[in-house]
Write a structure and sequence with these properties.
The structure holds 2 protein chains of 2 kinds. By secondary structure, chain A is an alpha/beta fold. Chain A has one domain: Rossmann fold. In chain A, about 35% of the residues lie in helices and about 25% in strands. In chain A, the strands form 2 sheets. In chain A, strands 5-6-7-3-8-9 form a 6-stranded mixed β-sheet, with helices on both faces. A 3-stranded antiparallel β-sheet of chain A has the order 2-1-4, covered by helices on one side. In chain A, strand 8 and strand 9 form a beta hairpin. In chain A, helix 4 packs antiparallel against helix 5 and helix 5 runs parallel beside helix 6. Chain A is globular and about 50 Å long. In chain A, about 40% of the residues are buried. Chain B is about 60% helix and about 5% strand. Chain B is mostly helical. Chain B has a two-stranded antiparallel sheet with strand order 1-2. The model of chain B has no long low-confidence stretch (mean pLDDT about 90). Chain B has 2 domains: about 60 residues, Winged helix-like DNA-binding domain superfamily/Winged helix DNA-binding domain (Arc Repressor Mutant, subunit A, Orthogonal Bundle), CATH 1.10.10.10; about 40 residues. The longest helix of chain B has 26 residues. Classes of the chains: A alpha/beta, B mainly alpha. At the A-B interface, helix 6 and helix 8 of A face helix 2 and helix 3 of B.
């Protein structure tokens, strides 16, 4: 039984097939990049894993369980959009997360927040967009989860904030957890990835160790991606 | 600051090269202790598993040895470090000579150019 497993997974929106017969098995101790162009099915897959969408056919399981209440206690999810209430400050957020998640690690959270140097009284809506995104990432990474599902964690932030996000992910690495990062900004994330999963038009076109790919093709993951998905 | 990596070469082998260079240039001293995998991974901006793979590679080559419970140490075998120094120098000379040949210089011209270069003089 894998930490994260898709078997013959198909998702249709009406006539449109978003995911087509996906087979995928991922284990703990890895940072996996879910890479693909816009509209390839990345977010659909992640939303199914969070029980925000249902499958049309096949299955997606987390530790053998279908997405639901139980898996939500194991999965820390960072959506691709802002999801936290703007009227809350970080103390409110910590209380909120502690209420919801028994695996929430307040010590870890406060340590990371301290490094951001923001006032604990400032509400989210008064923060800059970049700071809000960092706070949202910190809240997600502060859980001692089995799986971290990060949907486009670096899309909206400046290069310095990108480094911050990537360092936060490396710093929280645990051999007991699986981290899945979905993104189309491959060059930025590729040094921190173990495995890469290329997804295109709802198909998994490649699942390989990143360094093995570099060795085999003599190019970066980013260059290989550009070559494979040239329009 | 993350380390700079070239595309198209596995990152673990580039890390091995960077650490070898650090041993040769004395940033890591023979017999000295290396930082932990997580700290090195953070410094380099890479996945800890990739750093682990690089460490395993260096251990295989005998340049690094791991001591249970206390961490990893640079070899204190000076002979081995000298072999490494020669190997690396040879590769660099090879590259340099290759480039000079491409520019259109003869071996004699390259040698006299090297001898006339003041950068290395005391």
């Amino acid at each position: 039984m894998s930490r994260f497993e898709c078997h013959a997974l198909t998702k249709k929106y009406g006539q449109t097939t978003a995911l087509d017969n996906i087979e995928l098995s991922l284990e703990a101790g890895q940072i996996v990049g879910l890479l693909g162009p816009n509209g390839s099915g990345k977010t659909t897959l992640i939303k199914i894993a969070n029980n925000l969408l249902t499958v049309t056919e096949g299955s997606l399981t987390i530790e053998g369980l279908k997405p639901g209440k139980q898996t939500k206690s194991m999965v820390a999810y960072l959506p691709d959009q802002e999801c936290l209430p703007g009227f809350m400050n970080v103390n409110d957020l910590i209380r909120y997360y502690k209420d919801f998640f028994s695996d929430f690690n307040e010590y870890k959270c406060r340590k990371m927040l301290d490094s951001l140097d923001i006032s604990h009284k400032m509400t989210l809506k008064k923060m800059s967009k970049g700071t809000r995104e960092k706070v949202q990432l910190i809240m997600t990474m502060s859980r001692d989860a089995q799986i971290y599902l990060l949907d486009e964690p670096i899309a909206g932030v400046d290069p310095a904030a990108r480094d911050y996000v990537l360092n936060t992910i490396i710093n929280n690495y645990s051999p007991k957890a699986l981290v899945i990062i979905s993104t189309h900004l491959i060059a930025d994330v590729e040094p921190i990835l173990d495995d890469i999963v290329f997804i295109n038009n709802g198909h998994i076109v490649l699942h390989q160790n990143a360094d093995d790919l570099r060795e085999e093709h003599g190019m970066s993951v980013d260059a290989y991606f550009r070559e494979t998905f040239r329009y | 600051m993350s380390w700079k990596f070239e595309s198209g070469i596995p990152i673990y082998s580039q890390i091995m090269d960077i650490i070898k260079l650090r041993i040769l240039s004395g940033i890591y001293t023979p017999g000295g202790k290396l930082p932990g995998v997580r700290d090195l991974a953070l410094e380099a901006g890479v996945n800890p598993n990739t750093m682990q793979r690089a460490m395993a590679g260096l251990e295989n080559e005998g340049l690094v040895r791991s001591v249970r419970t206390s961490g990893r140490y640079i070899t204190d075998d000076e002979d081995l470090i000298n072999v490494l120094r020669m190997e690396l120098s040879r590769t660099k000379v090879e590259q340099f000579y290759h480039d000079m040949k491409a520019i259109g210089l003869t071996q004699e011209e390259v040698i006299s150019l090297v001898l006339s270069y003041g950068g290395m003089k005391k």
